[in-house]
Amino acid sequence: MSRIGVFVCHCGENISRTVDVERVAQAAARLPGVAYATDYKYMCSDPGQSLLKKAIAEHNLDGVVVAACSPRMHEKTFRKAAEATGLNPFVCEMANIREHCSWVHEDREEATAKAIDIVKLMAARVRRNRRLAAITVPVTKRALVIGGGIAGIQAALDIADAGHEVVLVEREPSIGGHMAQLSETFPTLDCSQCIMTPKMVDVANHPKITLHTYSEIEEVGGYIGNFQVTVRKKARSVDMAKCTGCGVCMAKCPQKKIPNAFDKDMGTRPAIYVPFPQAVPNTPVIDRENCTYFKSGKCGVCAKVCGPCAVDYTQQDELVTEQIGAIVVATGFDLYSIEPKPADSPIQGYGEFGYGTIPDVIDGMTFERLASASGPTGGKILRPSDGKEPKEVVFIQCVGSRAREKGISYCSKICCMYTAKHTMLYKHKVHDGQAYVFFMDARTPGKNYDEFWRRAIEEEEAVYIRGMVSRLYQKGDKVVVMGSDISVGIQVEIEADLVVLATAVQARKGADTLAQKLGISYDKYNFYSEAHAKLKPVECATAGIYLAGACQGPKDIPDTVSQASAAAAKVMTLFAKDQLEREPIVARVNERFCAACFACKKVCPYGAVEEKEIRDRQGNLIRVVASVNPGVCGGCGTCQATCPSKSVELDGYTDEQVMAMIEAL
Amino acid sequence: MKHSKMQLSAETMNLGFVKKVELLSGSSVRRCFQCGKCSAGCPMRSFMEHPPNRVVRLLQLGQYERVLAGRSIWYCASCETCSTRCPNKVDLAAIMDALRKLSWDAQGPSKESYVQLANRLFIENIRTYGRQYEMRLAAVFNVKSGQFLKDLMLGPKLITRGKLRMFHQKNRNIGEIEKIFSRIEEMRKNGEAP
Hints:
Shape of chain B: globular
Low-confidence stretches of chain A: none
Largest interface: A-B, 22 and 22 residues
Number of domains of chain B: 2
Oligomer: heterodimer
Structural class of chain B: mainly alpha
Largest sheet of chain B: none
Number of domains of chain A: 5
Helix content of chain A: 25-40%
Largest sheet of chain A: 5 strands, parallel
Helix content of chain B: 40-55%
CATH architecture of the largest domain in chain B: Orthogonal Bundle
Number of strands of chain B: 1
Number of strands of chain A: 34
Distance between the termini of chain A: 19 Å
Low-confidence stretches of chain B: none
Mean pLDDT of chain B: 87
Radius of gyration of chain B: 19 Å
CATH class of the largest domain in chain A: Alpha Beta
Shape of chain A: globular
């Protein structure tokens, strides 16, 4: 490029306050290769852009440097403007003299000198820019949704309703997730099952949705638009095609005393089971660890009683590979356990609450199952130790959450609301009972949320006590709660029949392993990281992978459903095009010099480097070289810095360009 | 009492008392969310052992003995700053009124408080004379409270400025005033007035 135009922006006063923009423009005009330089009050405004277009046409410019704000802010704006005049958009670059200069300096002289230097660097780089063409990648219009809770269900239905194929993978034998376990939902107190099960049935019946339950993600390869995902379908021991869901096998199974995890181990289930009556699919699974046949080879009752002969003890895990264009991760959450910590977890356990040894200290989800009409008590609130109806119930919020000592400093967001809901459910079922809640803060930011919380206090007569509980201990058949009301500054003691802990929302166990398979990032709590906290809340930094629900952070149902629909919309946006266009700032390998050491392959964070075989016409292998898949490359330049033979270069940041920039100073 | 531990249970929390307070005051007690704005603006706060917000909080926990045992409710000047500024429409001044009334009825621990004595003498004066006779009020209060010399030196000053009359002036329509008193007594007997 030998006819570069430099456009220096005042940014109102943001730049011109500390930088003498006119002098910058004058200095730029004298730079080698610069044919035109000017300054303007607001380059990004409509007149500013017209000025740029006019100058390109009038002065026949073949390169543009806009000295203004960060390229993150307006690079797209100016490249678009340049493209409108017929210029290649990738010869338009920004020199950041706002964030990197005027905002961080006070001395006008020095700031102006620095701004001139920054423009010099950019001009040197633009002189050596290549005219790049946007990269196009084909898109497989088939989405994978990982997790069959309310987030996954919503995302799958939205994408499928838009007419695209969806593969929904669920680890448990049935979809439904945590929401299927809840009794009623805040802030309207409608029954969770009643609003959930129709959606579950919709998923099962949708012609565009392929449902893999009792399955896990084994391996993920490929990149946006072109993922290859291997799903492990665990052996169900029941043929889904033959099973009619009659339930005779479950009724006849002699092994009936297995604690039911769906009911938080309160009820029991047989060894061949569906987790709950409304399960989708309604096909039982044999729990091989507890099945007498699998343990001793004797029994086989279920196979004998099964009319359609669906029970198949010889079934093996099956690996299915799916071609996928976009992935929605909706793996949900786990609840903190107060029980003694396993050796591998530094954060579990609550000694002052008895490490889970007091039978009448339960967590919120257990209370949900007690209150649920389909729960182990048929919806009666009965305490676990002796099955009596508790008359005084103490709820404790922030157990595990906001507890730096436990390694969790975040707020779990949903506990204030579900505890308020629990006090109401309790009052509705035990009219002469009294609910107490120990809380630090009540956080109820949501539509009709604060009103709901106040209703629990003002109308349902729950006694809220501000202050954390110091200790719980068993005294006779009561649990003594030692707390303090900090608004009056007096210690409080309650002899409770039942204590319910609002335990923290945590990332799923194994969330990190899945993230590593997917190549997405996660925070120190193993929650998946979004690309931008505010402006890209559903996208992952890895292109083509989107987040929905509590796997990204604690979230209630309305937020989860919103995010799931948002993720679905992102997938549909991606699927709206047959070809995917992306920035051509990618690495290229000079195959003539590549020594095939594959150091670049080891350091590439995107997994974009592949081994390429070069063969002659007869098909004999001549040599193997590294090759960068432009669809996957993130343009970070790590390979370029690593390559010992200097045979990988990042377009737009080639060694030649970088050296020229240094020399320009 | 003031700092002793609270044992909370359905028995120890007198929520019936709270209902009475709500009925008398016409204001919700439960509605208060303890923002503390009442205590922040209360001119009598520095004299109270339980600031206004804590009075409400103790009521919410059904701890009425703690409220009535203290003198906070008697220090309340009924200036209504709290009620005016409350963000949550709790009429704290009315609650204070109701508490004073209930304290009186309950033969509460503050029965012998000077405030109650002063209130009673004030009303008796009105009934007898149809208007206030300050000289008698002060004299009887000092005798009955056993503080014979209380505020004695204020007397001459008030007299010279014409603020305190030596002799009373009876209201001409004292019969009408007596009718008001007897009607309220009648209503109270029938349970029509608090």
